[in-house]
Amino acid sequence: MAPVNLRGRLVAALIAGQLFLPLHTLPVQAEPVDVANGQAQSAEQAQPTSSGVEGYATYYAKRYNGRRTTSGVRYRPEKLTAAHSTLPFGSKVRVINPANGKEVVVTVNDRCKKRKQAHIDLSKAAAQKLGFFGKGLVKVQIIPLEEEAG
């Protein structure tokens, strides 16, 4: 059995850790609030353009090959898929690289971390089609596509 003094220190440290845990999980910066109607704006609403939203694209690292996505399907680098923080699973998104004019249509099947700027995480195949594979980050247009009723 541990001495009472050591046990007391361990309990005190555990309690202190539990008290400070909520401080470390709070967001660093809140989303902007529209004072007129009191609603928060998401990153997608912050920079709308006539053809979607300006944002940034990255691609999945090699270590994610074959892992399950948030939707439950396995990530395959050869598929045209993407992760987005708010768009529903299964939705189609047109992503355009304005630097070279290349574009690709991807299916959202995963979630990514919400960021201040609009952001989409693409599969390796999608990054290659947009011409930025190996560069890491590129500015893009993110255009959610409407599903055709049929």
From TrEMBL:
Its EC number(s): 4.2.2.-
Annotated InterPro entries: RlpA, RlpA-like_DPBB, RlpA-like_sf, RplA
SUPFAM superfamilies recorded: Barwin-like endoglucanases (SSF50685)
UniProt key word Transmembrane: no
Gene Ontology terms for molecular function: lytic endotransglycosylase activity
Signal peptide, first to last residue: 1-30
Enzyme class: lyase
Lyase is among the record's keywords: yes
UniProt cross-references to PANTHER family, sorted A to Z: ENDOLYTIC PEPTIDOGLYCAN TRANSGLYCOSYLASE RLPA, ENDOLYTIC PEPTIDOGLYCAN TRANSGLYCOSYLASE RLPA-RELATED
Family: Belongs to the RlpA family.
Protein name: Probable endolytic peptidoglycan transglycosylase RlpA
Classification of source organism: Bacteria, Pseudomonadati, Thermodesulfobacteriota, Desulfuromonadia, Geobacterales
Gene, per the UniProt record: rlpA
